[in-house]
Structures are given as structure tokens and as C-alpha cells.
Design brief:
Length: 430
């Protein structure tokens, strides 16, 4: 019988990713015993700034920067062992010896997945989100084909070779015969390299579900850290302009082996405007000076790719879906400072499609392509007062409080955390 109440919090992106989840996760990580990733791979990118020191992470949960919580990579994450080893080294160079476990069941990104990813980009012809070419879609596809290699296999050479034979042949065939490109790797070379990776990573490989179940029973605080965002969810997002995994909070069950029933708080991170990397229609896109101003002010360039992000006004049709699908209990609203001194702010509350106003994201790509944002205008604010984070929510400019209560009414979810700067302390809890 469970005798102590465990506290489980999930943090997910409510838009297109890059909402500032890293900062919000890091803010909570101080109280967490475990910080867990449950999906995606090193295609994600978090930036956390602590005491002026910048940390850029792609695979290890951002809670690692705290030192105390155990960082956990769940089975729903796909792991490039080389990227993981590099990230462990990067942290060590910055003075952090990561406390980390990686699921024995997590699938491994192989060199042929990365090669296939590049080959696929031509085949997709713009009808996909645009890939980071890290092998993410092919490794997830291989998992479903049951060609996959899991972390545990890297420390069992016989099974690894058996599976590698099958996966290598299949992917080589796809790359060379179906997509007309070449694979410049041999089985022997891959086998040797990956067995070496296995030796380095062996101390971290563990049964994450069992570990977290024990933690739950012991009343520990567990924080689940989502990557990307709602509209990139492979099922609920703007398919096929999505990522290859489920970004929704419900995926923590599958991606870590912890029951969704155990989660107490689910926080959706919403940026006060939106940004998007890669292809897809974007109803509220700003292709003007205001967009350029927001991009520069907000530093909207990809953490992983360095690509300039597309910019748009806040889209509450999108956030409404995030509230519903994730079961959000609250919102963390970030980057309000980026909208300083803009004057008038527009917020999209509905789309107009074929003469009708719609309030939910359509499944029809035709409707989404034709969606015209229905805006409401709000008064902007000037500068946010110095040290506002010490003074509290009530001391925010009235226009910001109006902006927040407008959002809350339209999406029926409370904003409990307000972020007004990139640093850890520039955060207001309501
Ligand atoms: P994530 O993937 O959701 O963690 O987002 P990114 O790390 O890609 O992007 C967030 C960026 O915005 C990082 O550089 C953060 O340091 C920064 N950031 C987060 N919150 C705020 C904020 O409230 N204001 C400003 N100006 N920057 C912020």
C-alpha cells in the first residue's frame, strides 16, 4: 500500500515548441527528486541560464543543472548514444557530473537512421515539418517495424549483432534502393563503435519504470519534462508538419511506464506570441516589421539548428487544444518582456474558414491552410518595472494583467506562472 503522497508534475509545450519550457522546468527542478524526459530525442533543444551561465541541452533533462535530482531518460525517448556521451562530457566540462539513468528499453539512433533521415527529406517535398536530420523519424519507424535496437542491446553483443543484421539490411535497402542514395557505413564498423558506446553508457542503463514506481511509492517528487509542443504531436498536431513522437502529457505513461493516474499537476508553457521552425501553414504569422522586432527581441533562432524562427501573434485556438488534450491544470506564460513597447497587441481567438468561425483546430489540412485568424485587439504595455519578480503579480502593469485575464477567459485555464526574462529569478508565481 502507498503510504506517502508523491507529487508528480508534468510540464509540456502548448504551441510549436520553444515556449521556454527549459526555464520553467529548471524552475521546478529544484524541488524535484527526479526529472524525466518521456519522448523525442536530441532534436529538442533547451536553453537554461543560471547566474549568467548558459546551458544548452538536447537530450538530458534540464533539471540536471541542479545536481541533486536524478535525471531520467524514459523508454519513449530515442537515444543517439554519441550525442548522449557528448552531452555528459559537456556537462562535466561545465562542472556538473550528471546523475542520470537511461531506460534499458529506449530505442537507439543508428548511423543508418541519420542517413535515411537526410534521404527522406527530398522524398517529403515540403509536406512535413522539416527535419533536424538526427534520425528521429527513422528510429521511431524502425521501432514500429520491430527492427529497432534498444539501449539494453548495446551491452549484449550477441543479441545486438542479431538485431543489427536485420536493421542494417532493411535500412540500407531503403536508402539505396528506394531513395537512390548511398549508405557509407558497414555493419562491422557500426557494431564495434556501438559496443564501445555501450561500455561507456552501461552504468546509466536501468529499468526506468521500476525505478520511478519505487520513487512514487516512496513519496518522491517527480517532474516530467516535455519537449517540442502541442501542435507538433504526431497524432493531435498539424500532421504531417509534426515531430515523430507524441508530445502530449498523456504520453508519459507509455514513454516511461508511470501511470497517468499518478500525475497531480500538468503545466502548459505558453509563449506570449508564437514562433515556429520549419514548414506548415501558420495562421497568425507576422511577416512584417513587428515580426522582425519580436524575432530579434526574443532571440528567436533555433537552439539546435540556428535557423531563424517564423513569428506570429498568440493563437488561442491552438492553446485551447493544448488545454483539452493535455488536461492542463495551469499555464506558465513566458516571454512577456519580448512584447514590451509594441503598442497594440493582437490575439487570435478563432479562425474564419469558408465564412464560418471555428474555435478548435481542424483536422482538415484544407481548412487549416485556409484559416484566417479572427483577432481581438489588446492594449500593449511599456517597460516591465525593475525587479518586478520580487514585488509579485499585483505589481505587474495593468495592461499585462488584462492580457492575462483575457487569455484565461478564452481558454478556461488559469495562468499561475509569469516569466518576464530569461533568467531563473525573472519569474513570478501567482
Ligand atoms: P524550450 O525548448 O521550450 O525550452 O525553449 P528554448 O530554450 O528553445 O527557448 C526559450 C528561450 O527563451 C531560451 O533562450 C530562454 O532563455 C528564453 N526565455 C525563457 N523565458 C523567457 C522570458 O520570459 N523572457 C525572455 N526574454 N526570454 C526567455
Amino acid at each position: 500500500m502507498k503510504s506517502v503522497q508523491s507529487k508528480i508534475t508534468t510540464i509540456v509545450g502548448a504551441q510549436w515548441g520553444d515556449e521556454g519550457k527549459g526555464k520553467i522546468t529548471d524552475f521546478f527542478a529544484g524541488k524535484a527528486d527526479y526529472v524525466v524526459r518521456f519522448h523525442g530525442g536530441n532534436n529538442a533543444g533547451h536553453t537554461v541560464i543560471v547566474d549568467g551561465k548558459v546551458f544548452k541541452l538536447h537530450l538530458i533533462p534540464s533539471g540536471v543543472i541542479y545536481g541533486d535530482p536524478l535525471s531520467v531518460i524514459g523508454n519513449g525517448v530515442v537515444v543517439d548514444p554519441k550525442a548522449l556521451i557528448n552531452e555528459i562530457e559537456y556537462l562535466k566540462e561545465k562542472g556538473i557530473n550528471p546523475r542520470l539513468i537511461v531506460s534499458d528499453r529506449a530505442h537507439v539512433i543508428m548511423p543508418y537512421h541519420i542517413a535515411l533521415d537526410s534521404a527522406l527529406s527530398d522524398h517529403q517535398k515540403g509536406l512535413a515539418a522539416g527535419s533536424t536530420n538526427r534520425g528521429i523519424a527513422p528510429v521511431y519507424a524502425d521501432k514500429m517495424y520491430r527492427n529497432g535496437i534498444r539501449m539494453i542491446d548495446l551491452i549484449e553483443p550477441d543479441v545486438f549483432l542479431e538485431k543489427l543484421d536485420k536493421g542494417f539490411d532493411f535500412n540500407k535497402g531503403l536508402i539505396e534502393n528506394a531513395l537512390g542514395q548511398s549508405l557509407n557505413h558497414t555493419i562491422e564498423e557500426i557494431f564495434k563503435t556501438y559496443i564501445d558506446y555501450g561500455k561507456i553508457l552501461k552504468p546509466y542503463i536501468s529499468d526506468v519504470s521500476v525505478e520511478l514506481f519505487k520513487a512514487y511509492k516512496d513519496g518522491k517528487n517527480i517532474l516530467f519534462e516535455g519537449a517540442q509542443g502541442m501542435s507538433l504531436d504526431v497524432d493531435h498536431g498539424i500532421y504531417p508538419y509534426t515531430t515523430s513522437s507524441n508530445t502530449a502529457a498523456g504520453h508519459i505513461s507509455i514513454g516511461t511506464g508511470v501511470s497517468f493516474k499518478s500525475v497531480n499537476r500538468t503545466i502548459g508553457v505558453v509563449k506570449a506570441y508564437l514562433s515556429r521552425v520549419g514548414e506548415s501553414p501558420l495562421p497568425t504569422e507576422l511577416e512584417d516589421e513587428t515580426g522582425d522586432h519580436i524575432r530579434e527581441n526574443g532571440g528567436e533562432y533555433g537552439t539546435t539548428t540556428g535557423r531563424p524562427r517564423r513569428i506570429g501573434w498568440l493563437d488561442l485556438v491552438q492553446v485551447r487544444q493544448a488545454v483539452r488534450v493535455n488536461g492542463l491544470t495551469e499555464i506558465a506564460l513566458t516571454k512577456l518582456d519580448v512584447l514590451n513597447n509594441i503598442g497594440e497587441l493582437l490575439v487570435c481567438n478563432a479562425y474564419e474558414v469558408g465564412g464560418d468561425e471555428i474555435y478548435e483546430i481542424p483536422a482538415s489540412l484544407t481548412d487549416y491552410r485556409n484559416a484566417k485568424p479572427v483577432y481581438e485587439k489588446l492594449k500593449g504595455w511599456g517597460e516591465i518595472p525593475e525587479n518586478i519578480w520580487d514585488k509579485g503579480f499585483d505589481k505587474l502593469p495593468q495592461e499585462i494583467k488584462d492580457y492575462i485575464s483575457f487569455i484565461e477567459k478564452r481558454i478556461d485555464c488559469r495562468v499561475t506562472i509569469v516569466s518576464v526574462g530569461p533568467q531563473r529569478h525573472e519569474t513570478i508565481i501567482r
